[in-house]
Specification:
Structural class of chain B: alpha/beta
Number of helices of chain A: 7
CATH class of the largest domain in chain A: Alpha Beta
Number of strands of chain A: 10
Helix content of chain A: 25-40%
Shape of chain B: globular
Number of helices of chain B: 27
Number of domains of chain B: 5
Shape of chain A: globular
Distance between the termini of chain B: 39 Å
Distance between the termini of chain A: 62 Å
Radius of gyration of chain B: 27 Å
Oligomer: heterodimer
Number of strands of chain B: 28
Strand content of chain A: 15-25%
Radius of gyration of chain A: 23 Å
Largest interface: A-B, 41 and 45 residues
CATH topology of the largest domain in chain A: Alpha-Beta Plaits
Structural class of chain A: alpha+beta
């Protein structure tokens, strides 16, 4: 397998231009999401889904300002969310057809021609990323531009990002760069700056797409402590196996006893 | 900047990463504010107060870069005894004529010298006001005496330094708080930051866009910033300057090779029917003989040779008589009024959608409806081409399709990826574009259209004298491909110009006034040097110096920072190691450095011009502003502006606030159109809020390039207004609901976005609310998303220097709910007009 590739999304330099959303849709030929004014800051695409593989969140944070005790926004957080490409990917675990697979870049990709639309992956994702497309039925999500990577190109979103908020590269290098960046931000007084998803010790074994956040993950709509939903599966299989064995044993025993009666 | 120039904003982020402090001054908290160190909310239309107070802060505390100011600006020049300031005349400068509503600038002149005044100054100001003459001065510099009397001690009461100091003395932090709504502490932080970050070791840059220009005092906004930057020594130096961000690709290019009515390529004046008799007379009137504009005969003759070739000879004034003549104001808005009045009969609209993108949409449409013919060239069937079929006036019953006689021709255009050519950006950088794909169907480039239209017209010409100018034009570019696309490189080479040997010229200094050289735009001379398309160079920045001279080509002479002589001290040494840029190498006897020096390479710093010297020879070795006839940066403008030699704060034409500085409320010289098609808001309480307009990252201008694209349209699908929670409560608006915005021009409906990013401002004891409206929507245009036209609300009031509309600050009312339909909309409008 080649080196593990990933995204480092540094939200501290995101300017909310949405070039990533557009570049992603252009390259991957994703349909539009409808034309609905959501009245939620500058976000009209809502969330990641079957037809939105990059999504920029806009969070307006207010504090009281001088005039008349009104609240005034003094921080506008912007963050481009994407599939996390988990080390331990539940979507992949539950896929019965093998449509979801782990690539040579250690990313997780759905093969549209194999997906049968069962939808097991949808509730399996701890981040709510993967989704089935209405009218199509199949599951869709970010491929980290698998086709571009195969051709030696970086993904469309990071290529289009004007401020390098989205960085693409070998995951180890990105983690190192991110550590330095977060240290600098903290030194500059951004006490709540943190990395999200970079640790191999977290509930999904670390993510291939990780983030630098300026506030708690919940502020961005991200789960604070994501856990691979199939974490308990081996144990569950164990218990189920044991239960099956004991049931079988009980049945056998019953027959044995029946035999004894004979 | 993040909002409208996200790609350019990466460099601001890079500067920030290297320790730059970023302030953002804007009525709204935008995506730029989000990334800035500090956001200062300001009332739209009050920036001269803020900038003026910064000037006052610098002068009152003697924080100016004195050595720079003394050597490189006109601070020491003495001004005429006849000059009176706005401080003396309660808001008017001397020379005001209430009858004509124009200034006579004669009293603004430098103290006269025995030679008297240059002829154009004697001519007075009326004609400047008539044809936006000062627009052309922007580059070419007015003719003032090269060496007026001076006081190097800067203590003479009539020296520019003292005049400027007195003029801005009342622009205090208290006034900033009262008029801009910026608290004193925030102002102090800004003032401290920019002064601490200026001087020998450091420089500060100001970046602006149409937030500064679209005002009835727009040119004076920029002037105020110029004064501040000159006082702080931030011009002509790396990291300094006043950076204008343009609104479209190559808008800089469209003034260099102009689409404006009053200038020729390279900022030469368009001849005026009433003023110019012939070539000599024109050259005599249009500018001084000192500074680089002194060579304008060579520039103009070379242009005429490029256009009329062999036909242009010394005997016939090089066909100067073939040039069109102005007969007055032919600007955009006056042209619209002339359409309504039946004077203008035909109209070309190319790559523009004025019924959505220009101010006063209703007047625009009424003008179009009164034409004989209209040609629209665009990528999509824009609203300007369909106003007769589905325009808002049909709904209200003001117009009926069957009554509109305008014959409309729609011609599909090729997009920027379907043709080759150059873009000139705000840094004056020409960058060549390759064609990626052929245009589809009947789509053609503008170059193709005009070239072949010209060929068709020329086939129909007669031997009549009236046809001679077009008959004699050089009109012969190589044609490429099946459609006969003219070679854009051949056009660029013609713009560059050729010498007597037929080879491409390499610099402007080779241009001659005897007809031996041709040049389509003198400032672009060198873009095809050595027969190479220099604009197509793409050497990566990692492979060259930080100035990156081999990426594209910048006019003039591939110079990346203008007036960079000022980056060295008067003796020619860098002001500091840190800010070294170009310097005098005494051993080699020439200027050298990281960039192309913006002075004559062999002129020593100690050069003193002899009496009666001409053009660049009349400038001293210490004069960096070589396009000015005195070589100085102007803190005070003795000639060239129609609304005063210094910026003064005037309220926007429509403002909820009285001007506390002067009895004169608004710019007295502003252009207004008192017409029923576009009336103004009454200054009483009917329109209590400030309205400002702007763009969003997700859309492009009037929407023709973004509304038809699903991936952009879905990101901002509807017109919305931004209001503060407090205004929403006051006006009864709910987030996600509808609002109707009213001015005396129109009623427009928009979805409501209630946001703390809009803050009410406390001005004196009064709370002033601002309403924000982007302007990308229209009713059609092939758009997947549609909406009302924001620019139907904006007034037709113009800056008198450059004729730009006041689209950034006006008054309005806001009501909850959707607007009335049909004639009921007119009834509502009528109620507001009558009060």
């Amino acid at each position: 397998m080649a080196e593990r590739m990933g995204f480092f999304t540094d939200t501290s330099v995101c300017i909310g231009c949405k070039a990533c959303e557009v570049a992603c849709k252009e390259w991957n030929q994703i349909p539009d999401d409808g034309f609905v004014f959501e009245a939620t800051s500058y976000d009209n695409t809502g969330m990641l889904g079957a037809s939105t593989w990059r999504h920029v969140a806009f969070i307006e944070q207010s504090r009281p300002v001088a005039v008349g005790g009104d609240e005034g926004v003094d921080r506008w957080l912007m963050s481009s969310d994407v599939c996390k490409h988990c080390t331990r990917a539940a979507c992949l675990d539950v896929c019965p057809t093998g449509a979801l697979f782990r690539t040579e870049f250690d990313t997780v990709v759905v093969q549209a021609d194999i997906c049968n639309g069962c939808g097991y992956c949808v509730p399996a994702c701890p981040y709510g990323v993967i989704d089935r497309r209405e009218g199509d039925g199949r599951a869709w999500k970010c491929t980290m531009c698998y086709d571009r990577q195969r051709g030696g190109l970086e993904p469309a979103c990071s290529k289009a990002c004007p401020t390098d908020s989205i960085q693409f590269g070998p995951l180890d290098e990105l983690r190192e760069r991110a550590e330095q960046r977060v240290a600098r931000l903290r030194a500059d007084g951004n006490e709540r700056a943190r990395l999200y998803g970079e640790s191999p010790d977290d509930g999904v074994g670390g993510t291939g797409a990780f983030f630098l956040l300026l506030d708690e993950p919940e502020v961005y709509g991200l789960p604070p402590d994501p856990v691979v939903t199939t974490r308990d599966l081996p144990a569950m299989w164990g218990w189920a196996g044991a239960a099956a064995l004991s049931a079988a044993g009980a049945v056998a025993l019953a027959f044995l006893r029946t035999g004894e009666r004979r | 900047m993040a909002e409208c120039h996200p790609v350019g904003f990466q460099w601001v982020m890079e500067a920030k990463a290297r320790g730059a402090k970023v302030f953002h001054v804007d009525p709204r908290f935008t995506r730029t504010s989000a990334l800035a160190d500090r956001h200062l909310p300001i009332r739209a239309g009050s920036d001269i107060v803020l900038l003026g107070a910064l000037i006052n802060h610098v002068l009152a505390n003697e924080l100016d870069f004195r050595e720079y100011v003394l050597a490189y600006t006109n601070a020491a020049s003495l001004v005429s005894e006849d000059f009176r300031d706005t401080e003396d005349l309660d808001g008017l400068f001397s020379g005001w004529d209430p009858e004509t509503a124009t200034y006579d600038p004669r009293s603004w002149a430098y103290e006269s010298t025995p030679e008297g005044r240059p002829s154009e100054q004697a001519e007075g100001g009326a004609r400047h006001a008539k044809t936006a003459g000062p627009d052309t001065y922007g580059a070419r510099g007015a003719a003032v005496h090269p060496s007026p009397p001076t006081d190097p001690t800067l203590t003479h009461p009539r020296c520019v330094y003292q005049i400027v100091k007195r003029h801005f003395a009342r622009y205090t932090p208290e006034l900033v708080e009262q008029l801009c709504g910026i608290p004193r502490d925030d102002f102090a932080e800004l003032a401290e930051a920019i002064t601490a970050n200026s001087g020998r070791e450091r420089t500060t840059a100001w970046v602006y866009s149409v937030g500064w220009t679209q005002h009835s005092v727009g040119a004076q906004y920029i002037r105020t910033a110029s004064i501040l930057q000159l006082l702080l020594g931030n011009m002509g130096r790396p990291g300094g300057g006043i950076l204008a961000l343009r609104g479209h690709a190559s808008i800089q290019g469209s003034t260099d090779i102009p689409t404006l009515f009053n200038i020729l390529p390279g900022y030469l004046d368009m001849p005026d029917a009433g003023r110019h008799e012939g070539l000599d007379h024109y050259l005599e009137l249009e500018g001084g003989s000192t500074g680089f504009w002194g060579n304008r005969r060579a520039y103009l003759v070379s242009l005429l040779k490029a256009w009329w070739g062999e036909a242009a000879t010394e005997e016939n004034d090089f066909c100067f008589g073939h040039l069109p003549r102005m007969t007055g104001d032919h600007g955009h808005y006056t042209t619209v009024m002339n359409q309504i009045d039946g004077i203008v009969k035909g109209y070309f609209v190319v790559g523009e959608n004025p019924v959505v993108g220009s101010s006063g949409g209703r007047a625009q449409r009424l003008g179009l409806a009164n034409l004989d013919w209209l040609v629209v060239r665009d990528l999509a069937l824009v609203e300007t081409a369909t106003f007769w079929l589905d325009g808002p006036e049909l709904e209200t019953g003001e117009l009926r399709t069957e009554d509109i006689g305008t014959e409309v021709f729609f011609l599909p255009a090729a997009s920027h990826v379907e043709k080759e050519g150059t873009f000139t950006n705000t840094q004056r950088l020409l960058q060549w574009r390759e064609k990626a794909v052929d245009p589809s169907g009947d789509c053609r480039s503008e170059l193709w259209f005009y070239y072949h239209l010209g060929k068709l017209i020329r086939r129909r010409l007669t031997d009549d004298e009236i046809d001679r100018p077009v008959r004699e034009l050089t009109w012969d570019y190589p044609e490429l491909g099946v459609h006969g696309e003219p070679s854009a490189e051949a056009v660029l080479r013609e713009i560059n110009g050729v010498g007597p040997d037929g080879r491409a010229l390499s610099s402007t200094s080779q241009l001659r006034a005897d007809g031996s050289t041709t040049c389509g735009c003198w400032i672009y001379c060198g873009v095809y040097a050595d027969e190479v398309n220099q604009a197509a160079r793409r050497r990566p920045r990692r492979e060259q110096s930080a100035v990156a001279p081999e990426w594209g080509w910048a006019w003039p002479a591939n110079r990346r920072i203008l007036y960079n002589r000022a980056s060295a001290d008067p003796e020619g040494r860098p002001w500091s190691e840190r800010k070294a840029y170009v310097w005098w190498d005494a051993e080699r006897g020439e200027w050298t450095g990281h960039d192309v020096p913006d002075c004559e390479i062999g002129k020593p710093p100690g050069y003193v011009p002899p009496e009666g010297a001409f053009a660049q020879d009349a400038l001293a070795g210490t004069d960096p502003f070589i396009m000015q006839s005195d070589g100085k940066g102007w803190l005070y403008v003795p000639l060239g502006l129609v609304d005063g030699p210094l910026p003064a704060h005037y309220e926007p034409h429509e403002s909820p606030v009285a001007n506390p500085l002067y009895a004169q409320q608004a710019n007295p010289a502003r252009h207004t159109y008192n017409r029923p098609e576009s009336p103004y808001n009454a200054p009483d309480g009917r329109f209590p809020y400030v309205l400002t307009t702007y763009r969003l990252t997700e859309h492009h201008t009037a929407g023709a390039m973004s509304r038809p694209l699903a991936y952009l349209a879905e990101l901002q699908p509807e017109l919305f207004c931004e209001v503060s929670p407090r205004l929403a409560a006051e006006a009864g608006l709910t987030n996600g609901g509808w609002a109707t915005i009213v001015t005396s021009r129109a009623v427009v409906e928009a979805r409501v976005l209630v946001t703390g990013r809009m803050r009410p401002l406390r001005l004196g004891g009064v709370i002033v609310h601002q309403v924000g409206l982007p302007y990308h929507w229209g009713w059609g245009g092939g758009g997947l998303v549609t909406g009302d036209v924001t620019n139907d609300l904006t007034p037709l009031v113009l800056d008198p220097n450059v004729y730009i509309q006041e689209g950034k600050a006006m008054t309005c009312d806001v009501r909850p709910g959707r607007r009335p339909r049909g004639p009921a909309a007119l009834d509502l409008l009528e109620r507001y007009r009558r009060g």
